[in-house]
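Q: What residues go here?
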């Protein structure tokens, strides 16, 4: 017997984009008290995934993108992807007609202003068959103009179909605290340290150390957004101290975790990570 469909999957099953002719339509989904996932799928329309609460990530060919609060992942139309959310996440989808806005042709994470977030939330409660010259239609035009101005953030992890790199990535994702050296990983996959270093850079565009740190950052953002304390996240990632983890986080994103999340939630709708 197949497991019951998740809230995320059910919401998309009930969305018939072939009947949508408006520029943009919105949809809000609240996840229950367990993790939720939408298997790999694709849409004709472009899709924006906005995280209102909890940890959300999107996997597309070649990379995994994280969606912290006040950010959204943009997925161009026709791109296969899957969406994962932590327990009790709150998500807003925005579907955009092809060519309706000057949005990137590739998947990316966009920083979302309070104005754009408010417009997206408003669109999620509007009828989907509005006229272009209606109040909703005019707000849709403003939303698309503002959305195209949102800055891109590099909150993604390159992934690879190369078997040896893929094996290491899976093992690190299963146990982010694994601190094996590059030489030890090389012995595991029957490669020299130098050859593995070249392969990782070739497949991901990053050094092994930078790639592993980016994996830690992606995992940390998802866990912190899901409500876990900074000390627990630091321990799960194998850091010797909470201070060392905070230093890594601040170096990568410019702010310590508590400040990063507090500044991304000016209305107090998301829990700021505790220490």
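A:
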């Amino acid at each position: 017997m197949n497991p019951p469909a998740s809230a995320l999957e059910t919401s998309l099953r009930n969305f018939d984009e072939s009947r949508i002719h408006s520029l943009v339509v919105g949809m809000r989904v609240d996840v229950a008290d367990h993790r939720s996932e939408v298997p790999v799928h694709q849409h004709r329309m472009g899709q924006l995934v906005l995280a209102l609460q909890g940890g959300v990530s999107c996997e597309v060919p070649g990379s995994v993108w994280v969606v912290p609060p006040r950010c959204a992942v943009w997925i161009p139309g026709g791109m296969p992807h899957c969406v994962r959310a932590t327990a009790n996440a709150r998500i807003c989808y925005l579907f955009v007609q092809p060519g309706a806005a000057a949005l990137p042709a590739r998947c990316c994470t966009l920083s979302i202003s309070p104005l754009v977030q408010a417009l997206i939330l408003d669109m999620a409660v509007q009828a989907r068959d509005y006229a272009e010259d209606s109040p909703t239609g005019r707000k849709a035009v403003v939303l698309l103009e503002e959305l195209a101005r949102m800055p891109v953030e590099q909150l993604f992890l390159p992934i690879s179909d190369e078997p040896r790199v893929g094996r290491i990535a899976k093992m690190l994702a299963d146990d982010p605290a694994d601190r094996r050296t590059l030489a030890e990983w090389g012995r595991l996959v029957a490669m020299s340290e130098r050859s593995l270093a070249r392969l990782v850079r070739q497949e991901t565009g990053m050094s092994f150390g930078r790639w592993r740190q980016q994996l830690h950052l992606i995992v940390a953002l998802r866990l912190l957004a899901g409500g876990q304390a900074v000390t627990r996240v630091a321990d799960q990632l194998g850091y010797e101290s909470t201070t060392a983890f905070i230093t890594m986080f601040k170096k990568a994103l410019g702010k310590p975790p508590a400040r990063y999340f507090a500044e991304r939630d000016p209305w107090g709708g998301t829990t700021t990570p505790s220490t």
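A: Context that may help when evaluating the design: The CA atoms of residues 12 and 254 lie 36 Å apart. The chain has a mean pLDDT of 87.
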